[in-house]
Amino acid sequence: MTAHETIPTDRFAHLNLFVAGYGYHESSWKVSTVEHPGMLDLDHFVDIARIAERGVIDSLFFADSPGVAEFRPRFMAQSGFDPIDLLAALAPVTQHIGLAATASTTYSTPWDLARRFATLDHLSRGRAGWNIVTTGSPYAAANFPVQVHPDHADRYGIAEEFVEVVLKVWDAWEDDAVVASRTTGIWADATSLHAPHHRGEHFSVAGFLPIARSPQGHPVLAQAGSSPAGVALAGRFADLVFTPQSTMNDGITFRRRIRDIAAANGRSPDSIRTLPGLSFVLGSTEAEAEAAWQRLEAASSEEFRLLNLLHIAGVHADTTGEFDPDGPFPYHVFEKSTSTTFGAAVCAAARADGLTFRQAAARFATLPGGLHFTGTPEGLADLIESWWRAGGADGFTLQPLRLPADLTLFADHVVPILQHRGVVQGGYSPGTLRDKLQLPRPPSPYA
Ligand SMILES: Cc1cc2nc3c(=O)[nH]c(=O)nc-3n(C[C@H](O)[C@H](O)[C@H](O)COP(=O)(O)O)c2cc1C
Questions:
Q1: At what angle do helices 110-123 and 152-170 cross, to 10 degrees?
Q2: Is 277 in the pocket of ligand 1 (CB under 6 A)?
Q3: 120 vs 15, 96, 115, CA distance in Å?
Q4: Disulfide: which of 33, 135, 220, 321 matches 129 by Cβ 3.0-4.6 Å?
């Protein structure tokens, strides 16, 4: 390992909690101790946020897709609150934890989104984060004026310009633009306001926001696409990168790519943090954890998995009737989707291990291609520490399979071990989410 890949010793591993309803497993709602409609009640998320703060976790994260595949609600609990609104509701009941949400660059407009995240950043006193995604699912298209889902390359082209515009909008007010002088009667110094006047290929945005620059300047930016186009976007803009990596070697290679591309964009490699997804189910013994995992798996539906494999790989028609799930793997069906990370991963695994469609569905449909752990708190702490020390990750995006059960076990049993070993912070440091993550506050370009 070169110095370039090591973790600076003055930093801790970051922990970002992916909050998915009753947990990240498709069957979590079937085994949950939380009674329906708990997940449709704010208190469920308040409980989760409080446990996460007890565990000194850096940020809460809500994923999002502004469209639902028609087959999914039959099988999976749906908890698709607007994530920015939900985070705004959690801001006053939490004190330290970062509040991050996905928002789509294909199915949003940049001025409006810039305003919503700036609002969250103000209301939370500098704890907002935006996970930039292009939205793989085409089900959103029919809900929006565009009607047709742009292809992968076009979505990333739109995303590049979208983020440029959002940054211009966030930067339109200089930090000291508000003078609020009762003597002169001037609220904001007009020379400190810089309307974006953006006219580009995809967006035209003229004016500034009706609020001052937010506490972080730019809310923390995350990016979750791991294709070459996703990596390129991350290299330009992202502070955090969420990614599915299933082996430590893959994690090391991917993190090196991310750091290299940040450097190629004139940024410090330390200014971008790779947080692979890590799903887990915990027990006080191996046997207890294994039993919990088996219970989740036994509650699964094979019909769901066959449909979901196509869905997550980016194949968006029910083609399951067109081939034998136990016959040769239907590469022709997946051909169109290999530009997505999951589609490529499914095809690669099918080729390498000679999988049938049914076998691939069993392997990928629940926890698509990322890192998974079933075991004891000690074992999970070992895994986190070993990846972090080896330069395979700057921390993790935690995907507990049962919420709040696995989060509670994590906060009360894994975190103390990691704190004792100096891997994660002992308590929250003061300041904004950027301050806490030791990410610089972007200066105003006009300062
Ligand atoms: C931890 C994690 C969280 C993600 N969250 C979202 C999300 O909220 N919405 C979404 O559409 N995609 C989400 N994705 C998927 C990616 O953003 C991306 O759409 C997908 O990987 C396909 O893009 P790619 O081909 O560039 O990898 C997530 C991925 C990871 C690893």
A1: 50
A2: yes
A3: 21, 14, 9
A4: 220
Question: Could you state, in order of their start, the residue ranges of all structural domains in the chain?
Answer: 3-289+369-436, 301-365
Q: Give the mutation target among 60, 87, 102 for probing the ligand 1 site: most ligand atoms within 8 A of CB.
A: 102
Domain 3-289+369-436 has CATH 3.20.20.30: yes
pLDDT digits (tens, 9 = 90+) for 257-293: 999 999 999 999 999 999 999 999 999 999 999 999 9
**Any idea how long the chain is?**
447
Axis crossing angle, helix 228-237 with helix 248-264, rounded to the nearest 10: 50
CA angle 332/372/13 to nearest 5° reads: 120
Runs of H (alpha helix) within 272-373: 286-298, 302-312, 331-334, 341-353, 357-364
Residue-wise pLDDT tens digits, 167-195: 999 999 999 999 999 999 999 999 999 99
**For residue 336, what are its two tokens?**
């169109």
